[in-house]
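Archive transcription. Copying these from loose printouts into the bound notebook so they stop getting lost. Printout 1 of 2:
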Amino acid sequence: MNDFGVAEARDTRAVDVVVVGAGQAGLSSAYHLRRSGLVPDRDFVTLDHSPRPGGAWQFRWPSLTYEKIHGMHALPGMELTGADGGRPSSEVIGEYFTAYEERFGLRVRRPVDVAAVREGEGGRLRVETSEGVWSTRALINATGTWDRPFWPSCPGQETFRGRQLHTSRYPGPAAFAGLRVVVVGGGASGTQHLMEIADVAAETTWVTRRPPVFREGPFGEEQGRAAVALVDERVRAGLPPQSVVSVTGLPVNEAISRAREQGVLDRLPMFDRITPSGVVWDDGRSVDADVILWATGFRPAIDHLAPLGLREPGGGIRVENTRAVRDERVHLVGYGPSASTIGANRAGRAAVHDIRALLEHEPALV
């Protein structure tokens, strides 16, 4: 299936499909590629830059136990059963992904860093990696967002004498014992960090750019479809995807209700500048702080796709289903409306369906 008659560098290897990333979306894609008849390491290859299986979950803080996560939709073909809700989600999901890769023989290559994807020869894509160059007829990008933490810029940020860190490096609440902590961000991570830290810190202050929206009551299929439709509308318009919470709101559970009653979730608007000793607002208000924790989310990790010129003027990649509108050979899974565990599964299946049609329509070079 991989006859390749175009001259390339000797270390270039040719496959039909390269999958970049082995989180939920990447593993789902690899599963469906194999199920469609393609053979791992012969017809397609899955590259992952993480040191071990588990996707972004392997880097989550120890206090984020499996029972605290919003839900982990099973990967296709293998349920996650018997998980201990009290164990760290990083361990539970890491072990699950490991077993999944082994069961289906997906042969994920790691750690492999993808530096760039650019136009190759003969209508193929050239994937430049730390393990050499791959030449491929199609690419499934499943790199998620974890590797691109977003740090807002704020006047005086460089003068702060305390510690600044992002959710991506959150060590758990014990590290903040006895400290004055400002938590910035109104998403799920920000509220989880805040509620944990409040139990041990000397003082906590919650700051968000917009007033948080708490969602009371059930969140069913109809509400889920409406939320996905809002994200999909932006992606189809070529705009960067919004955060999940921006379209779903924060679900009110027992812990949220208790924290609101205790005043932990009393929110202040975004401060105007940072000083060596804390944060201040233009109205004269100020808060002293030892730590500023930026729970300000992530952006899609797609810089390696830049040589292909896929971005629209709005800053995002316009996607129809999973296919990049500017290049039918490129599919983005776990991006925009498919950036959820169940959405990633569906996107993997949809991407493989379209890629199989592409491969059949455009025969391999001989």
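Printout 2 of 2:
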Amino acid sequence: MAALGWLTPRRRSATARSVLAGEASAEAARKSSQEAPKTARVAAEEPVFPVIGDDKAAAFFDLDNTVMQGAALFHFGRGLYKRKFFETRDLARFAWQQAWFRLAGVEDPEHMQDARDSALSIVKGHRVAELETIGEEIYDEYMADRIWPGTRALAQAHLDAGQKVWLVTAAPVEIAQVIARRLGLTGALGTVAESVGGVYTGKLVGEPLHGPAKAEAVRALAAAEGLDLTRCAAYSDSHNDIPMLSLVGHPYAINPDAKLRRHAREKDWRLRDYRTGRKAAKVGIPAAAGVGAVAGGTAAAIALSRRRR
């Protein structure tokens, strides 16, 4: 894909593949964005910020564990399994990865890479339109009741102030756009899978929208939209998103992992924790609960494997 002409010159610390992934995601987001439908208003927590009428500002929200409990890619995998896209042994792996993610509250690079590789091989040869339709169904089945009300209220505050709000996620851009539309947001930046003639090839454009690639996507979209990043806000739970959070003038740590919490305190960033049963000042979970969650995930995986035999 050719570099986008509206990307402003800058010193690039990210890899060429990160830049390509970010530009591809920004381009896909701009093509798909449209007037956000009106949704029920949720009271904003902070009346002073965002600034009403500031059209040079926007908000960028990470998805997994920031807007939604768990990982969108794993929920998507469950939905594809239900529709016979792959076999039980693959679902067992998805189930264990999701249990680990919910328990630890952080992304494991090997798990995420495995999930992405599996998803690409699963959708190869399928039409983009088919996955978009299925994505709508999967949102209703597995994602709608996992949205954090507190984070949604923050997003709604930006919308009420007349600002655009974008999801920024490593999940497939088609799924991210479904979630954004259902939440009444402006659009979404996500991982772009290559397609030819409306059919997935099983390859990515660049690399997954993760870490530095997210920052590249936000930077590219801001340039295209004429935004002032110093007046924008970004929200995430993961230290992997520090590059994106560092781009904006108003960074927020939402349900932060330990590394992001420490970094946010050092930088005096705002923190919010909406996790049930967790104190805002503590990221760890009780040992008994941890053992129970691991046992539950292991039992589910074993049961699924036995059912296949």
